[in-house]
Amino acid sequence: MATEKLTISDPLSEVTRKDRRALLGISVLGIIIGGANIIPIKLTALGIEFGKTDQNFLLFVIFLITLYFLSAFAICAFSDFLSFQIDLRNLSKERETLKKFVKDPYVKEEEEAERRYINRSKKVYLIRGLFEFLFPCVIALYSMFLLLTADIQPTKIYF
Predict the structure, then answer these.
(1) Cα 145–126–86 angle (5° rounding)?
(2) SS3 of 102, please?
(3) 74 forms bridges with which residues in the sheet?
(4) Which residue range is the domain that position 138 belongs to?
């Protein structure tokens, strides 16, 4: 049962989850700005006014921030995946060691039932991993694409 618990546990560590949250936040900002082709020309609260060059530079800065968080998230997520693989390998070694010492006639039936549960929980782990990892990466890449291809028209949006 330990393998099932391992495969349905949270695939991302707290650090990776924070990076994911930041990545999704900056990606949504990039999609809003790049997709709608709008960018503020004036931040009244800060007393800043943007010219056309400044707006393009701001887009580039948002692009770089998105790239940074995408890289940080990918590195942390890969580390979490490797950690999971190590835990799974260690658990498998422990099970093999225990099987050598246990001579029970009902072990075959239990092993078959356990294998079915493990296969199901691995599928859930795969689906959850794809959602937790692939979805933010696709959103970030889409945001970066929009930011690079945006043709910003000055709009009078005041913050």
Answers:
(1) 105
(2) coil
(3) none
(4) 2-158
